[in-house]
Amino acid sequence: QVQVVESGGGLVQAGGSLRLSCTVSVWTFDNYGMGWFRQAPGKEREGVSCVGWSGGVTYYAEFVKGRFTISRDNAKNTLYLQMNSLEPDDTAMYYCAIRTGPYFSCLRGDYSYWGQGTQVTVSS
Q1: Which residues have CB under 8 Å from 69's CB, separation 6+?
Q2: What is the pLDDT of residues 37-61, one digit of tens each?
Q3: Is 76 left (phi over 0), alpha (psi -120 to 50) or beta?
């Protein structure tokens, strides 16, 4: 059974930084695309950033470009999201997810396994 566990969320002031981590229990982590998604109260879950199996292909939503960096350590079965210059609009529950399909995607419906999320709150 695949388990996805996020950590690293918290409360930070605007302009601050956080680093999210996602550890996955799966035999072949480096076979899968990974992604970060977020959901704010009253809003739909949206893609933040995704990365291909090797780390060579990445996608960033326009609203995080230049501020967030996605990376993965396949030896540790871990995905990261470095978030800098955080803004109050970044406040949301952040979810990590695994894509088992054959091509790169950052669409929510293309991801199969999800974690429980980690809360990020940015105060103004």
Answers
A1: 81, 82, 84
A2: 999 999 999 999 999 988 889 999 9
A3: alpha
